Amino acid sequence: MSRKIRAIFADYDGTLCPAANLRSSDDGTSFIPSPLGETLWTLSGYIPVCIISSKDSHFLVNRAPFATVFSCIMGIETLVVKRRNNNDILPEIEKRRLSINRARLRENARKLDSISQIVQSEFPFVTAEKKRTSDDLLAGVTVDWRKKKDWDEPRDAIESYVRKIVSKYNNKSFRPVYLETYSSHPFIDIYATKCDKGTGFKHVLSEIKMKGEGQIMYLGDSENDNPAFRLADIPIGIRSDPRLKPRLECDFVLEQDMLASFLQRLLRNDLVFSEAL
């Protein structure tokens, strides 16, 4: 059976950009490495290349100029942007879509803000990265201890404390916030509503225009990619750091520093996937 690729959906952090790099750094380390970025730009001239990420649009859109659809904050917001003529110009947003009622989002944004302040007060070494919608509503918080040399040492204490605080807030509300934990990644995510990348995958799929028959490839590196892996025709896990040992539901695994050359071979093979690539 021919496995012609008709679209590529990809996570960002840990997949297109190495996991050890800081989540909000502007020093260049949180950008896609040049050979990979150039290859993705070339691919996007033939097929849709889209992003499904826990990051927000403020972080993603200018870091992935090849993408025309972004599922941001684990599917909470979807953006469709006009394809750019080159990777330097600012994107024109054509469509925005939220998967949560704005009244509920505003209510839970206050909880997220309070939770992040409490956790940072208890653990001063963590970073609380706030994820906002394109119109600046708080929709998620990542508690990140990636700056620590030993990612496992503080994990149990942070996770236990965050669970306790989130449970305290949720017990007082009919509109709970949603907690996502990971087996080996050095962060915890808290969102304004239950969300996952499977929902993001469906939202992106509904927005793209694909030419002809073919299959969808998904690239991801963590457990939060598993709902998208289950929907993809060709799910490929990406490894970018030996400290990470996530339980991935994928058929193939690639090292992150080999991703650019793999995609270049896919291009030379007329976008037909095979295990030999």
Folded structure, characterized:
- The protein has 277 residues and is of the alpha/beta class.
- It has two domains: 5-99 and 196-268, 3-Layer(aba) Sandwich (Rossmann fold); 102-191.
- The chain is 29% helix and 22% strand.
- It has helices at 34-43, 57-60, 102-122, 155-171, 197-207, 226-231, 259-268, and strands at 5-10, 49-52, 69-72, 77-81, 93-98, 127-132, 138-144, 178-180, 187-191, 215-220, 234-239, 252-255.
- Helix 3 crosses helix 4.
- The mean pLDDT is 91.
Question: Could you provide a short overview of the structure?
Answer:
The protein is an alpha/beta fold. It contains seven helices and twelve strands. The chain has two domains: 168 residues, HAD superfamily/HAD-like (Rossmann fold); 90 residues.
Shape: globular
Distance between the termini: 16 Å
Assembly of the depicted chains: single chain
Strand ordering within the main sheet: 5-4-3-2-1-10-11-12
CATH superfamily of the largest domain: HAD superfamily/HAD-like
- Which CATH-level-2 architecture of the largest domain? 3-Layer(aba) Sandwich
What structural category arises from helix and sheet content?
alpha/beta
Main sheet specs: 8 strands, mixed
Q: For the residues shown, what is the average pLDDT?
A: 91
Helix % is 25-40%
| Rg from Cα | 18 Å
In terms of per-residue confidence, which ranges show pLDDT below 50 for 5 or more consecutive residues? none
Q: State the CATH class of the largest domain.
A: Alpha Beta
Please, how many helices? 7
GO molecular function: hydrolase activity
Organism: Nitrososphaera viennensis EN76
InterPro entries: HAD-like_sf, HAD_sf
Keywords: Hydrolase
